[in-house]
């Protein structure tokens, strides 16, 4: 799914394509800005985006075997949430409608 397809999927729930576009872009912008600032973005049921620093290192060119210096960099790691992993692995059935990452309501104890 790309951004345009995401907007199309969200549009019926938000009142139109214009509102869906604004909502999707606002959410993505807020997430990117938080990760760039060094914060982790955690969405319960979906996952966590975590910025991580990679130190400079020496690697090898697989074709020639020569050593290559790799500069230090920052990357983003994604850790999927438990509910998301359970849905993908089919340990939990995907609901026919509604919010797929929302936790099931707790059953009262007798």
Descriptive account of the structure:
- This protein has helices at 3-14, 17-36, 82-88, and strands spanning 41-43, 47-54, 57-60, 67-70, 73-80.
- The strands form two sheets. A three-stranded antiparallel beta sheet has the order 1-2-5. Strands 3-4 form a two-stranded antiparallel ribbon.
- The chain is α+β, with helices and mostly antiparallel strands and 110 residues long.
- Strand 1 and strand 2 (47-54) form a beta hairpin.
- Helix 1 crosses helix 2.
Question: How many distinct helices?
Answer: 3
Identify the strand order in the major beta sheet: 1-2-5
The secondary-structure element order is HHEEEEEH
**Radius of gyration, in angstroms, nearest whole number:** 20 Å
Instruction: Please state the overall shape, judged from the principal axes of the Cα atoms.
Output: extended
Strand content: 15-25%
The average pLDDT score comes to: 91
Poorly predicted sequence stretches spanning 5 or more consecutive residues: none
| N-to-C CA distance | 44 Å
> Strand pairing plus helix content: what structural class?
alpha+beta
